[in-house]
UniProtKB/TrEMBL annotation:
Signal peptide range: none
Gene Ontology terms describing biological process: heme A biosynthetic process
Name the record gives this protein: Cytochrome oxidase assembly
Membrane topology summary: Multi-pass membrane protein
Main location as per UniProt: membrane
Organism: Granulicella tundricola (strain ATCC BAA-1859 / DSM 23138 / MP5ACTX9)
Keyword Chloroplast attached: no
Pathway, per record: Porphyrin-containing compound metabolism
Chain ranges passing through the membrane: 20-37, 76-96, 103-125, 137-157, 178-199, 229-247, 259-282, 294-311
Lineage: Bacteria, Pseudomonadati, Acidobacteriota, Terriglobia, Terriglobales
GO cellular component: membrane
Keywords of the record: Cell membrane, Disulfide bond, Heme biosynthesis, Iron, Membrane, Metal-binding, Oxidoreductase, Transmembrane, Transmembrane helix
Source superkingdom: Bacteria
Compartment annotation: Membrane
Length: 322
């Protein structure tokens, strides 16, 4: 039978793994922000159309500022690969067979591979800097969606390492599943449409708020501008999901997570309005994106707590023969 010391050691290992996983989540938020800096500064072609090399070499010599920004982003992604693989190994060492954290760690690793592939594809196809093609919009939307799902999977890995829940115990009622999926997809659309709107602001800067609204309504405007209205519309739908989630969270006694989500949601609306009024300068876009990433992490965590309450924990250790 497992001794108290063995159980304590297992719990300690799991907690350290959870802290590391939360660190990986934070690092990925930084990678996303730096990726936005690449887009905002037009540095996507800073390494040419070479990948994984930068302008044909491993380490650029006498690089321009755009090359430094793009090369730094690529090195951050390399660090991300190391961090997520380390998280995967640590998760398997810190948990028992059947742990939900293992499943989400594997999902995170698969999404990371897809993330690298999509990023390389954007570079190789020339969907960077001033490219305004529909192909870029489609591939960028897929890339951004994968990024947000990756962050969500990492968040779930960290959360499940902390709760010790088993994969088989993650069951939810039909309506809870539907509400959670619809709400999170709507929030995903908010994030993707927001990034596309930011790209439109970068490629087609407006001289005034009035000119920006006129461009959005003009049937002859580029698709990037005409689709900007999707961002606030999807935000309204997502806000309805948050109302449902908050009501459920209050019943489950998840007041701390509920207050965090509501606070970040209010901050996001304020930043969104300020972003529009200031005509979306690059620094404001970065602040708005940081708030969006933090809100997404908090929302995924709260949704998991509501839909999958901690009713099933794996045993700390299996029984052993005396």
């Amino acid at each position: 039978m497992a001794t108290a010391a063995m159980v304590s050691e297992r719990v300690g290992v799991s907690r350290r793994a959870a802290r590391f996983a939360w660190g990986v989540v934070g690092y990925n938020v930084l990678v996303v922000l730096w990726g936005a800096l690449v887009r905002a500064t037009g540095s996507g072609a800073g390494c040419g159309n070479n990948w994984p090399l930068c302008n044909g070499v491993a380490i650029p010599v006498s690089p321009t500022l755009h090359t430094v920004i793009e090369f730094t982003h690529r090195q951050m992604v390399t660090g991300d690969v190391i961090a997520i693989v380390a998280m995967l190994v640590w998760t398997f060492r810190a948990t028992l067979k059947g742990a939900a954290a293992r499943v989400f760690a594997v999902i995170s690793t698969v999404l990371l591979v897809n993330e690298a592939f999509l990023g390389a594809l954007l570079v190789k196809l020339g969907y960077v800097t001033g490219n305004q093609s529909v192909g870029r919009m489609v591939l960028l939307s897929v890339h951004l969606s994968n990024t947000l799902i990756l962050v969500a999977a990492l968040t779930m890995t960290a959360r499940m390492l902390g709760t010790g829940q088993g994969w088989r115990g993650l069951r939810a009622k039909g309506m809870d599943k539907v509400a959670a999926v619809v709400g999170l997809v709507a929030t995903l659309v908010v994030g993707v449409s927001g990034s596309l709107a930011a790209l439109g602001d970068t490629l087609f800067p407006a001289s005034s708020l009035r000119a920006a609204v006129a461009a959005d309504l003009d049937v002859h405007s580029p698709w990037l501008l005409r689709l900007r209205g999707l961002h606030p519309l999807s935000a309204v739908v997502a806000a309805g999901f948050v109302v449902w989630l908050v009501v459920r969270a209050r019943r489950e006694g998840l007041g701390r997570g509920m207050n965090l989500v509501l606070g970040l949601l209010g901050l996001q609306f304020a930043l969104g309005v300020l972003d529009v009024l200031l005509l979306a300068p690059a620094w404001m876009q970065m602040v708005h994106l940081l708030g969006a990433d933090l809100y997404w992490v908090a929302l995924v965590g709260l949704a998991a707590g509501v839909v999958w309450p901690m009713e099933s924990r794996l045993a700390p250790l299996p029984r052993q023969k005396a």
